[in-house]
UniProtKB/TrEMBL annotation:
It comes from Nonlabens dokdonensis (strain DSM 17205 / KCTC 12402 / DSW-6) (Donghaeana dokdonensis). GO terms for molecular function: ATP binding; tRNA dimethylallyltransferase activity. Gene3D superfamilies: 1.10.20.140, P-loop containing nucleotide triphosphate hydrolases. It comes from the Bacteria. Keywords: ATP-binding, Magnesium, Nucleotide-binding, Transferase, tRNA processing. Belongs to the IPP transferase family. The lineage of its organism: Bacteria, Pseudomonadati, Bacteroidota, Flavobacteriia, Flavobacteriales. This is tRNA dimethylallyltransferase. The gene is miaA. Catalyzes the transfer of a dimethylallyl group onto the adenine at position 37 in tRNAs that read codons beginning with uridine, leading to the formation of N6-(dimethylallyl)adenosine (i(6)A). InterPro entries: Dimethylallyltransferase, IPT, P-loop_NTPase. Residues 36-39 are annotated as: Interaction with substrate tRNA. ATP binds at G11, P12, T13, A14, I15, G16, K17, T18. Substrate binds at T13, A14, I15, G16, K17, T18. Monomer. PANTHER family: TRNA DIMETHYLALLYLTRANSFERASE.
């Protein structure tokens, strides 16, 4: 039985995962792996809520702004890189912390990826052509029509993810959950999952405040600088795409901010839908003192 443990901190956006991860990193004098798939990119700082300098200085972080939006970096690449990194980190400490709200990336490390069918290039191109002609709302409608369960958890603003789902359905005629094997990859470390949650209205208030802070810090200017590259997959992200549409005169500034808040709330709801299906997550209210959570988890690790 291994004594090495990957401690995963999960939950919806704006709930306070970063602060809790640092509390654990300090308690165990260990490193933090970010599984936030948008914080990988060095060009995206404000809109992805990259940890502050003092937070980054409080512990060694991995997978924070170490990629470019022009890099082709998949969830499979992330799984490979983390699994290769962990043995090195476990030589330094028995516990490593992983934190982030990108559920598929966390699942890839803790559970493994399902072996989904390949989609022929010509089918991918057909779907992409329809997307370019009809827009992302068409992708969303196609996925919702063919795989309503997957639609409840997927990031509906991630065109790459939606195109993939449509392609898999066209090739196999099967929904995502029908193709998932339910067999976890064997990992040579223990996995403990800690989730933070809040009452819906409290969470929505925190999200709205976070968006206001991002606006004050210059999210609009950051989006303007990235606007020439708006079709890159990395930029199909809440907080950027709404401003891109504003720059194209689809609506006014106030509407852009309103949509960022609304779409972030919807994203948080999808995150919770995903994580609540995972019975291995031990949930704590976000107001629970970090010292109490650390103590309770430490007791569990020693049992």
């Amino acid at each position: 039985m291994t004594n090495k443990t990957l401690l995963c901190i999960v939950g919806p956006t704006a709930i306070g995962k970063t602060a809790l991860s640092i509390a654990f990193a300090k308690a165990y004098n260990t490193a933090i792996i970010s599984s936030d798939s948008r914080q990988f990119y060095k060009e995206m700082t404000i809109g992805t809520a990259v940890p502050e300098k003092e937070e980054l200085d409080a512990a060694t972080h991995y997978f924070i702004q170490d990629r470019s939006i022009f890099d082709d970096y998949s969830v499979g690449d992330f799984e490979r890189d983390v699994i290769q990194l962990l043995p090195k980190l476990f030589t330094q400490n028995d516990v490593v912390v992983m934190v982030g709200g990108s559920a598929l990336y966390e699942k890839a490390v803790t559970y493994g990826l399902d072996d989904l069918p390949d989609v022929p290039h010509e089918i991918q191109q057909e779907i992409k052509a329809e997307f370019e002609n009809k827009g992302i709302s068409w992708l969303q409608e196609e996925v919702q029509k063919n795989d309503a369960e997957y639609f409840e958890t997927v990031d509906i603003h991630n065109s790459h993810r939606l195109i993939r789902a449509i392609g898999i359905f066209r090739v196999s005629g099967k929904k995502m959950n029908e193709l998932r094997t339910g067999k976890a990859q064997k990992r040579n470390f223990n996995i403990v999952k800690i989730g933070l949650t809040a009452e819906r209205e409290e969470l929505y208030e925190r999200i709205n405040k976070r968006v206001d802070i991002m606006i004050d810090r210059g999210l609009e200017q950051e989006a303007r600088e990235l606007f020439p590259h708006k079709n890159l997959n990395a930029l199909q992200t809440v907080g950027y795409k709404e401003f891109f549409d504003y720059f194209e005169n689809s609506y006014d500034y106030d509407e852009a901010v309103r949509l960022i808040k609304r779409n972030t709330r919807r994203f948080a709801k999808r995150q919770l839908t995903w994580y609540r299906k995972d019975e291995s997550v031990k949930w704590f209210h976000y107001k629970t003192r970090h010292t109490e959570i650390v103590q309770r988890v430490s007791k569990k690790l020693m049992d």
